[in-house]
Fold MerR family transcriptional regulator.
Amino acid sequence: MRIKEVADLVGISVRTLHHYDEIGLLHPSDTTEAGYRIYSDKELDRLQQILFFRELGFPLKKIKEIIDSPSFNQNEALELHRKMLIEKRDRLTRMIRTVEKTIQHHKGEIVMSKKEQFEGFDFSQNPYEQEARERWGNEAVDKSKDKMGRMSKQQLTDFQEEFNDIYRKLAEVRHESAHSNIAQERIELWYNALNKIGDYSLEAFQGLGQMYVEDERFTRNIDKFGEGLSVFMRDAMRIYAERNK
């Protein structure tokens, strides 16, 4: 298939395919005398893998490393994609239900509990796992996933509520100084909770706090518990890490 045919089939731009070629992520199998890039079934399979990883939030540089690794197994990757996409679908379904109930709540048709208000917001695991792997390596993330995988469904639900409860407690004191005793006591709850599922060093803990502000996805979700909470947590996490080194 020519590049324009591939672009039309997949729903991406020709410019994107040119960029993938330039960075060594996806080369055409051949080029005609007229200069047209040609893609075979092998390249289309690779493109499908690339787009699955992109849908799950992996950066292009990391996708190239993964796919080009000698240990990469396409079938294993597809199973992982399937599992992660199902989890994403289920979480979005829960959030849609929460939105619908919130609309009814605002209309006065129902009364929502605090727990119902935040159903679908899952902070029990890092939804941006790739960033964590890039910054701190695989070990801490793998330990976290292993611990989560050993939990029952009820344990996971309880743990998610514990995380949300800590967010709410932090939101209550977000207008206090990040140096204050109450701020440091509550950010310690967060540090201890994270280390129930992972192995976060003080350095990693401080770096995670910085991500809460640098990555708008984190900021948007965290600040739903209270305007400015992400900045407050970043500052409190930095101070906690410095004091306990």
